[in-house]
């Protein structure tokens, strides 16, 4: 098993570790310390050695923060983790607050006292995030003070796990679709257009994409941790731990890329003095800007120059995504067949559900890893948006309930992410009606046509409108970007209520995942991945329009669809999707699965 069901933390972490952090704070003359979830590379999913928030609080979600004062503490999470945080964190020690509505800055402004010193680690905060903290501290009359090493790391000490050293390997051109030299020349030219001489790159996904390399330093993502300096002529320095450099890597990188150890990075930044250097203030830690400023470089604050070209998949990557999803669809269909037949009477628990699904993916012979730990929420656990089964929380499926399974895989040719909600036994009318409302929103977002320049935030309401009409909603984004054998969450594109400055462009892969969650009862989510298609004429129209092509291929539970709630257009769309699933997946599966698939994909 790639996924385990042990819990790495528990609510005792806070009471055990916060006193140690406070002792270290006192030695540094601090009244408070800010603990972000992000690490030195602004990662979402973290190596164990960098999961500081989990060690300090017990909370293991992929977004959050904490502030530890001498006499009080608070933890901040978004709507996805409102239930999880109650289970993992000691409520007597940490006040639970909203990460989005005001978040840490609003708390500091209200909780800090005049003259207090609030510590932060400049390697862990982006300049943008740090600026918001500074403004809040100033309003409170407190002082934000950089500290290195930070008190949390000092308290963790020798018990802290070692940094990962996974081998860094070439990512072949048959999957990447463009060689590194061409990418570096293209991105280098974009630097010149911004009047930049060079760019400092710290995001592992950008480094993996730009140099056509993959690693394993970040959980569930084939990412190498490192840094790079890219010159406008396309030459580069790549900073990697020598222990991770495989024998074939230097020749793969070529003569224009100089491999350097991490210890050489400060001197390399200092050597950029007097030059114009681009740094992404949302992706790179404040430490980099401070180092460049001290060196006398002129910093250009701009988006990571790899982010947009990485998001717009080339034809080879799109074709790879199609292959990966066809392969994954066969594994998913075998799994859904098991859920629809044997599991209806055996009533498996969540751990068995996860184990079975992973086994079907392993049988493809192409699985490199999961793209995230599988979410399998039976009954009320399905209402916990980012729930992960553990031995302690493991729940058995029951007749008359729903099972929500959100999972994904990493293949060399693509990354998958799919959610299906399945009825166990006979669902209630309410379950089916609310499932159908979610489905209507999902279908609306799948078939929409839109002009160039449209952002994901302009489309978000399409997925929510059917739920809104019934007085319902969900507290997570509708769609996130997905990488090509990279991270399952990838920017800069997204589909959410939050304003987005990034327009959707051809080749971008996004998820389509509206949901509904009834706390203590059940959860519903329907998720497919889809990519933005090239602009094409609309019959009778005046402008070519972009659209989406769905990548995910797996049946949607027809037992949960209230047919009369769908329009004729929606029924036709649903039937066409299921016909495509049957055509692509049917030839790959065994006769008994094929027979079931024909029923599961029958026209409404």
Automatic annotation (TrEMBL):
Residue ranges of domain Peptidase M24 C-terminal in the record: 544-604
Pfam family, one: Creatinase_N_2
GO molecular function: aminopeptidase activity
Keyword Protease: yes
Enzyme class: hydrolase
Superkingdom classification of source: Bacteria
Gene3D superfamilies, per the entry: Creatinase/methionine aminopeptidase superfamily, Creatinase/prolidase N-terminal domain
Domain Peptidase M24 stretches: 320-534
Keywords of the record: Aminopeptidase, Hydrolase, Metal-binding, Protease
EC number: 3.4.11.-
Residue ranges of every copy of the Creatinase N-terminal domain listed in the record: 21-149
Family per similarity comment: Belongs to the peptidase M24B family.
Protein name according to UniProt: Aminopeptidase P family protein
Organism in which the protein naturally occurs: Phenylobacterium terrae
């Amino acid at each position: 098993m790639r996924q385990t069901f042990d819990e790495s933390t528990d609510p005792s972490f806070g009471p055990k570790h916060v006193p140690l952090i406070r002792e270290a704070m006192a030695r540094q003359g601090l009244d408070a310390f800010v603990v972000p979830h992000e690490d030195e590379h602004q990662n979402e999913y973290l190596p164990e050695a960098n999961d500081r928030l989990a060690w300090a609080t017990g909370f293991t979600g992929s977004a959050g923060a904490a502030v530890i004062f001498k006499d009080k503490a608070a933890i901040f999470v978004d709507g996805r983790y409102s239930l999880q945080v109650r289970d993992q964190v000691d409520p007597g020690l940490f006040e639970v607050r909203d990460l989005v509505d005001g978040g840490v800055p609003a708390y500091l402004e209200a909780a800090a006292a005049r003259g207090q010193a609030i510590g932060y680690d400049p390697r862990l905060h982006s300049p943008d995030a740090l600026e918001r903290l500074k403004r809040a501290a100033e309003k409170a009359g407190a002082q934000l003070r950089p500290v290195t090493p930070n008190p949390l790391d000092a308290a963790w000490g020798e018990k802290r796990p070692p940094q990962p050293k996974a081998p860094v390997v070439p990512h072949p051109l048959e999957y990447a679709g463009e060689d590194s030299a061409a990418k570096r020349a293209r991105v280098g030219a974009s630097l010149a257009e911004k009047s930049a001489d060079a760019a400092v790159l710290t995001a592992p996904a950008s480094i993996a994409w730009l140099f056509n390399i993959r690693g394993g330093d970040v959980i569930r993502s084939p990412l190498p941790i490192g840094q790079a300096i890219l010159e406008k002529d396309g030459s580069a320095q790549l900073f990697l731990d020598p222990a991770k450099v495989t024998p074939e890597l230097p020749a793969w990188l070529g003569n224009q890329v100089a491999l350097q150890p991490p210890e050489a990075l400060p001197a390399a930044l200092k050597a950029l003095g007097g030059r114009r250097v681009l740094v992404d203030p949302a992706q790179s830690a404040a430490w980099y800007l401070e180092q460049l400023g001290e060196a006398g470089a002129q910093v250009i604050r701009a988006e990571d120059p790899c982010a947009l070209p990485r998001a717009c998949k080339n034809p080879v990557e799109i074709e790879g995504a199609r292959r990966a999803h066809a392969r994954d669809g066969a594994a998913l269909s075998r799994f859904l067949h098991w859920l629809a037949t044997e599991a209806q009477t055996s009533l498996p628990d969540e751990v068995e559900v996860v184990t079975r699904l992973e086994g079907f993916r392993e049988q493809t012979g192409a699985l490199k890893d999961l793209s995230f730990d599988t979410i399998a929420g039976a009954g009320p656990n399905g209402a916990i948006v980012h729930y992960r089964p553990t031995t302690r929380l493991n729940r058995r499926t029951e007749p008359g309930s729903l099972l929500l399974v959100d999972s994904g895989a990493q293949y060399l040719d693509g990354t998958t992410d799919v959610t299906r909600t399945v009825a166990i036994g006979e669902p209630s009318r309410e379950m089916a009606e609310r499932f159908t409302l979610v489905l209507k929103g999902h279908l609306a977002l799948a078939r929409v046509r839109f002009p160039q320049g449209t952002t994901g935030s302009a489309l978000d309401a399409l997925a929510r409108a059917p739920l809104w009409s019934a007085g319902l909603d969900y507290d997570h984004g509708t769609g996130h970007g997905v990488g090509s054998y990279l991270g399952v969450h990838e920017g800069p594109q997204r589909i959410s209520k939050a304003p987005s400055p990034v327009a959707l462009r051809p080749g971008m892969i996004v998820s389509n995942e509206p949901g509904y969650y009834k706390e203590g009862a059940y959860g519903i989510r329907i998720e497919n991945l889809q990519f933005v298609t090239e602009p094409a004429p609309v019959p009778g129209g005046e402008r070519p329009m972009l659209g989406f092509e769905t990548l995910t291929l797996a049946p949607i539970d027809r037992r949960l669809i209230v047919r009369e709630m769908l329009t004729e257009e929606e029924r036709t769309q649903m039937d066409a999707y299921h016909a495509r699933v049957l055509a692509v997946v049917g030839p790959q599966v065994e006769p008994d699965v094929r027979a079931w698939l024909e029923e599961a994909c029958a026209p409404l």
